[in-house]
Amino acid sequence: MSSISLKNVKKSFGAVDILQGIDLEIADGEFTVFVGPSGCGKSTLLRLICGLDEVSAGEIVIDGEIVNDVPPAKRGIAMVFQNYALYPHMSVAQNMGYSLRLAGTDKAEIEKRVGDAAAVLRLDKLLDRKPRQLSGGQRQRVAIGRAIVRKPQVFLFDEPLSNLDAALRVDMRVEIASLKERLGTTMIYVTHDQVEAMTLADKIVVMHAGRVEQVGSPLELYRRPANLFVAGFIGSPRMNVLRAEADERGTLRLENGTVLPVTAPAGARQVSVGIRAEHLSLSDDPGAFVLRGRARVVEHLGSDMFVHVSVDGASDPVIVRCPDEMELAIGSAVSVGFEAANAHLFAPDGQRIVSADARRSAA
Amino acid sequence: MFDLSTPLARAVFALMMGLIALFLFFPIYWLVISAFKGNAELYQIIPTLYPHKLSLGHFTNAFEQGHLLRNLRNSLIVSCSAAALNTLLALYAGYSFAKFRYAGRRGVMILLLSAQVFPFGLLLISIYPIITDLGLIDTRLGLILSYIVFALPVSTYMLYSYFSQVPSEIIEAARADGASELRIFHTIVMPVSIPAVVTVFLYGFMWSWNDLLYAMTLIVSEEKRTLGPGMLLSYLNEVNSDWGGAMAASIVASAPIVLAFAFLQRWFIQGVTAGSVK
Ligand SMILES: Nc1ncnc2c1ncn2[C@@H]1O[C@H](COP(=O)(O)OP(=O)(O)OP(=O)(O)O)[C@@H](O)[C@H]1O
Ligand SMILES: [Mg+2]
Questions:
Q1: B190-221 confidence digits (pLDDT tens)
Q2: Are the beta carbons of A50 and B188 separated by less than 8 Å?
Q3: What pLDDT digit, counting tens, does each position of B143-178 carry?
Q4: CB under 8 Å, gap of 24 or more: what pairs does B264-267 form?
Q5: Dist CA B212 CA B148 (whole Å)
Q6: Which residue, by CA, sits nearest to atom 4 of ligand 1?
Q7: Which of A84, A346, B98, B259 could form a disulfide with B163 if both were Cys (CB 3.0 to 4.6 A apart)?
Q8: Which residue of A has its CA nearest to B172?
């Protein structure tokens, strides 16, 4: 097991700076998830940690040792590639045992370790098959098995479940969660999937355009996003944002003068007010809440429904999540409300600001 | 595509295919039947379409005269060595071009391919003095080296294209698994590339096997002569033209190539990398 720390790690391809100085501490045994939009540099960072590419600047430290010049095989790291990258001409057993054969491990030991990993991943009946004779999920498990048999200090997973269908994803997610429990190894995991990120992570790293936007536990990121980007990225559906203006006393108003039930701190002018879909309340009585509007789209999910409401005085529609029991006609007049405690305020530069109400209640 | 649903269309299509087949196979057919005709029948004014009297005389002659077998042996030695050496060089060169990045990579590749622009015959003028200076005139090695000059650019390019398709991730996975670069090449990349390797081997083999010009020029002594010059000089020279013997010898000469294709074709299977990456 190992801790990892990245110190001002940069990567450029030619003149293009892909990673702009990443600082990150990952503790021994921690399960860290990298999330971020496509092209933000997640895979690039993973490849740097693995040693497949060289950093342009900065230091990668594993267990107190700078590993910038250490080849991948000597870093104690195993990587599971997004597209499996199995050796096509080798059987499942040979694929999993390849690294051990290279290391000169004796045959009995290789067989035992491959057998153990295969049992964990339920691959025992497939050991003699070639990759082309396997389903996508089985290939994925072989790729994971190949990493496990090496008993690495660190696991790197690059979107390991992205090629699987929904049911298999859930299975494999549970599989990885139990792997994490059993092995207790440091793991870094890249995903686009909110649910994977929230359920698996001890710590989520949100990346954007080659920078780290925020690092924290899943609930920290959900409850206290540091900026608008994180607020929009974590949580599904996206957090709703209302553009409002504050007067000297901190009263927040929409364009049309509607007063919001939350107060800005002194000095704030332009404020983005973020509220999650699940924190909005909806009523078909137009007088029940402060925000008036009309229902535009209703999405039934069975247990819940998402109602898209165009609010008077706001440019973008807001999405409200409520129990799927209300009868709502498209175009009907509704009202929407929220509590001050659930509102997130952001300054024009996107950084979080603390609302006056929250300050008062903290005092 | 054609609509083959009407009988007429099918008939026209069949006729066309028949003509193409006739065009392609008639010379081969003629070669085979001529080899099996006796001399009397072979030189009839009106040729027969098939041997009325089967004769193996040309074959027994060919083998009894001895030089055919010697030529055959020489050709096999030269062609196999040239093909093997060519494949070996092209393997490493192609892999380096495909999977490593270094200064001058493109330049060297273009230079290599530009060698292909010059006609085979023209290059003899520059190769001949080089081979002479090296003291390799009238040696099999000299011949082998000059064949490689011609086969190597295209062979390298063929393997380069193939290796470029091999997913980089499996190479990186092997690197992370702790394999050295040579190990990766030998245990991962090459086994995955067998169809391409076989193709390149056959390509180099055919180049050398079918050559007449270089073999005539660079080899002088009779005991090192390969099939092309051997057949030309023994069957179709100034004093006699033994067509039947030439035909029989041609069949013997083609046999190794046909056998090689038959034996190696099972490697031309598709999708050796299937299942590796998604
Ligand atoms: N070898 C390379 N040469 C030049 N640019 C590259 C190279 N590899 C990656 N990039 C660029 O670096 C950026 C980050 O790529 P990276 O693969 O790390 O993104 P990612 O966050 O993993 O995205 P995704 O979620 O789509 O996998 C992209 O804009 C990509 O075009
Ligand atoms: Mg990626």
A1: 998 988 898 899 889 988 998 999 999 999 89
A2: no
A3: 999 999 889 999 999 999 999 999 999 999 999 999
A4: B264/B198, B264/B201, B264/B202, B267/B194, B267/B195, B267/B198
A5: 15
A6: A13
A7: B98
A8: A52
A172 and A271 share one domain: no
Q: Examine the domain organization and report whether A222 and A108 are in the same domain.
A: yes
CB pair distance less than 8 Å for A52 and B175: yes
pLDDT tens digits, residue range A35-89? 999 999 999 999 999 999 999 999 999 999 999 999 998 999 999 998 889 999 9
Condensed to tens digits (0 to 9), the pLDDT of residues A193-248 reads: 888 999 999 999 999 999 999 999 999 999 999 999 999 999 989 999 999 999 98
Would you say domain B66-273 falls under CATH 1.10.3720.10? yes
Residue, of A233 and B256, whose pLDDT is higher:
A233
The answer to whether the beta carbons of residues A244 and A254 sit under 8 Å apart is yes
First to last CA, chain B: 33
**What does the block give as tokens for A345?**
């305020």
* Cβ < 6 A, ligand 1 pocket: A 13, 18, 36, 38-44
Identify the pLDDT of residue B271. Answer: 43
N-to-C CA span, chain A:
43
**Partner B contacted by A134 (CB < 8 A):** yes
Q: Domain ranges in chain B? A: 7-55, 66-273
Domain extent, residue A160, equals 4-228
Q: Residue A91: name the closest of A122, A120, A134 by CA.
A: A134
Q: CA nearest B180 in A: which residue?
A: A102
Name the closest-CA residue to atom 1, ligand 1: A13
pLDDT at B276 over 90: no
CB proximity under 8 Å: A 85-104 to B: 85-89, 98-99, 102-103
Whether the pLDDT of residue B269 is over 70: the answer is: no
ipTM attached to this prediction: 0.80
Identify whether residues A154 and A264 lie together within a single domain.
no
A223 and A244 housed in the same domain: no
- Which residues sit with Cβ closer than 5 angstroms to ligand 2, an ion? A 43
- Per the structure, how many domains does chain A have? 2
Q: Looking at the DSSP assignment, which residues form a beta bridge with residue A19?
A: A11
Of A12, A17, A40, which is best to mutate to test ligand 1, by the most ligand atoms within 8 angstroms of its C-beta? A40
Query: A42 and A175 in one domain?
Result: yes
User: What Cα–Cα distance (Å) separates residue B204 from each residue in A191, A300, B83?
Assistant: 48, 67, 4
Q: Does residue A168 lie in a domain region? A: yes
pLDDT at B46: 80
- CA dist B176 and A147 (Å) reads 10
**Interchain CB distance below 8 Å, B276 and A85:** yes
Q: Which of A265, A256, A229 is nearest to A345 (CA)?
A: A265
Chain B residue numbers with beta carbons less than 8 Å from the beta carbon of A134 are 275
